Amino acid sequence: MQLITYDFISGCFGGACGVLVGHPLDTIKTWQQFSNHKIRASVYNIIVRHNGLAGFYKGMFFPLMTSGALNSVVFAVYGEYMRQLQSQCLTNRERQQNWPKHVLLAGSVAGVTQVFLGCPIEVVKVRLQTLRYIGRPWRCLRDIHRIEGLSGIYRGITPMMFRDVLPYGIYMLVYEYMLGIEERMHRMKRDRLSSGSGGVVIGSPYDASLIAMAGAAAGIISWMFIVPFDVIKTVMQSETDPTVHKNMLHCCQTLMERHGWRSLFRGSFMVIARAAPVNSITFLGYEWCLGQCHKYFGNGDKRSFWS
């Protein structure tokens, strides 16, 4: 099996793990941004309007089925592009010197892929979470396309570009950097340089804890500066009338006029609270599954403490 196949399988597994852990917090965050309510009011509305605690998992099936595949594509694009960039370097020294730049560039390219494939998923998820649509996800997607056209499916794609492209490169760079500063991770970094992309073998619970901390730090840092774009995206995607928000700037202006500048940062706490566990479990799932792929289909000498 090729390395890109390993990235694809591992990304799918890691993405599904992240959705299972983070969806309840994502629902609270989405409701906050949509209604401009605080956490307590949002939780109350979710429970009351969604018939109990099950409301926190409203709309989870669609991202669970699709986000895993989306993450698999994103990780595969990142891994393959990273290998191509690294293969252009003639020496190990040159690869090490260009590693941060390559990670940032490969992550940004993966972010572009995530935007175009993930925007329809986000639109459906937001509509289901905010009760702007009551029904099954695939029917929701079909109805959006039938009523609003292709522009409806890709509503909010501009703020998603600002939210996901360069920040995704930063996300991957922070993750790699956090691993690199840990002395115990030097062996893992050498494995990455030799293979050209992510392929960490989780050798002990200590390794797993470092991966979890690196993933949490990457998620928190990459989200800290892009919350306004996420708020605008949510507001635009939850609106069924395309004339209400003409574009990203018009939506931003409308929010500030109605609710003040603080509304652009609504849901920040939930974003940060969600980023740590979701990205920890995503990277843990990704790294573990990648190690298993190498163990059973490729390099048989690689071992995992999970096995």
Q: Can you give keywords for this protein?
A:
disordered C terminus; mainly alpha; globular; 11 helices; 307 residues; single chain
Helix coverage percent? over 70%
Instruction: Give a count of the beta strands, DSSP E runs of length 2 or more.
Output: 0
Measured distance between first and last alpha carbons: 20 Å
Using only C-alpha atoms, the radius of gyration works out to 20 Å
What's the helix and strand layout?
Layout: H1 3-35, H2 39-49, H3 61-87, H4 92-129, H5 137-153, H6 157-180, H7 186-195, H8 205-224, H9 227-238, H10 248-259, H11 268-297
Helix pairs in contact: 1-2, 1-3, 1-11, 3-4, 4-5, 4-6, 6-8, 6-9, 8-11, 9-10
Task: Please give a structural write-up.
With 307 residues, the protein is mainly alpha-helical. Helices cover 76% and strands 0% of the residues. The protein is built from 11 helices and no strands. It has helices spanning 3-35, 39-49, 61-87, 92-129, 137-153, 157-180, 186-195, 205-224, 227-238, 248-259, 268-297. Helix 6 packs antiparallel against helix 8, helix 6 runs antiparallel to helix 9 and helix 8 (205-224) crosses helix 11. The longest helix has 38 residues, at 92-129.
Short recap of the structure:
It is built from eleven helices and no strands. It has 307 residues and is mostly helical.
